[in-house]
Amino acid sequence: MAEHFRIPGHILDAIEAHRQACRDPMAAFFYDLPALAAHGSAMKAALPSGVELYYAIKANSEAAIIDTLAPVVDGLELSSGGEIERACACSTPRPWVLSGPGKLDADMREAMTRGVEAFHVESLGEVARLQAIAASLDRVQSVLVRINPSLPAGLNSRLRMAGTATPFGIDEAQLADAVQAVDEAPNLMLVGFHVHAMSHQKCEQRHQRLLAFYLERWPEWRALARHPEQVVQLNVGGGIGVNYLQPSEQFDWPGLCRALERRLSTMHEPPLVRFEIGRFLSAFCGYYAVEVLDTKVSHGEGFLVCRGGTHQFRLPAAQGHDHPVIHLPRDPRRAREGERRAWTVVGQLCTPKDVLSRQQALQGVVVGDLLVLPLAGAYGYNISHADFLCHPRPDQIFVSASRESSVPETRAQRRAEPVG
């Protein structure tokens, strides 16, 4: 799998410079900000007229990531009070929405006072709480009702967010009641619907079918409202997957956008469609670099024990896959002459579940070499159990356009031990 990856020169420079600055063996994340901006710009440019792109910051909410994407995207999607703080600290202010189940009253009030564009309401109870808060602030608040629809046969994925029993959204059978509740709330205004049914979608044609289903249902959903002319937004969520196992075969985003454009052109009153993309925006910019601490064979299986592990990069364990691995030897000539064999790459944790990748064919690996795991820019460090075993947190290096310039996260910089 690693043969499909070529680490950019400025990332290789940043890895080597950081390694030289660390007294202990290295485990760190490196983020290619120019590549992130270029990828986001390409995704935005592919969208048809009347379609927006929001960044779901849950995928990676580090300040440098948000600051890089904010000038490119139309807005941000948030799901907690902590994410409100991060979004509002962005160097380029963008519109933002608040979604997700279990919203705190304090978070909803904070969101209103800080200028939230809209709420995605998840239940009838949330409608009532939101009305009370909006009334106390003497504010009329825009909302979208999140729908949990019944999906057509054959539309399924590894991670379903709708079409089955979930804590997300309001069942389509109860949608009329939810719309009525919003219409009768004097401080709420229904402006659209939100549907996020499936995640980890890797096939453009399957996702095309899913969007077509939403658009077919749109007129019926809209007609439930007391003032349908105010209901103009259809938020189709995200769910675009990353192919970690076949990295050269990624989701055909331009193809999806072309199909969506054709479909919208046939509609009498098409909605304003909004995507909320997280993983597919930020995954490709990240690299997790770990140093080999030990090599061993146990019951015939070779293990590379590395600095770091799943407490810093939980993505492979969470996804249940063997992540691609790139070998950066200290001595390339010696590595070319060394033995080629299958290795299982593990971390430092006292659990057999601390596995980053199994049976990776690598040549001439020795203690002190680096292994780099690409596609680490989304749902990697930010979902990890970083305090397990009290190992130090990894450094995070945000690499700018200059080959000489990299900006470590402040907390990580305090933990690094530079030579000298």
From TrEMBL:
Keywords: Pyridoxal phosphate. The active site is at C350. GO terms for biological process: lysine biosynthetic process via diaminopimelate. InterPro entries: Ala_racemase/Decarboxylase_C (IPR009006), De-COase2_C (IPR022643), De-COase2_N (IPR022644), Orn/DAP/Arg_de-COase (IPR000183), PLP-binding_barrel (IPR029066). The keyword Metal-binding does not apply. Belongs to the Orn/Lys/Arg decarboxylase class-II family. The keyword Cell cycle does not apply. This is Diaminopimelate decarboxylase. It comes from the Bacteria. The lineage of its organism: Bacteria, Pseudomonadati, Pseudomonadota, Gammaproteobacteria, Oceanospirillales. Its cofactor is pyridoxal 5'-phosphate. Residues 411-420 have a biased composition (Basic and acidic residues). Residues 400-420 are annotated as: Disordered. Residues 284-377 form the Orn/DAP/Arg decarboxylase 2 C-terminal domain. CDD domains: PLPDE_III_PvsE_like. GO terms for molecular function: diaminopimelate decarboxylase activity. It comes from Aidingimonas halophila. Residues 39-283 form the Orn/DAP/Arg decarboxylase 2 N-terminal domain. Pfam families: Orn_Arg_deC_N, Orn_DAP_Arg_deC. The modification N6-(pyridoxal phosphate)lysine is found at K58.
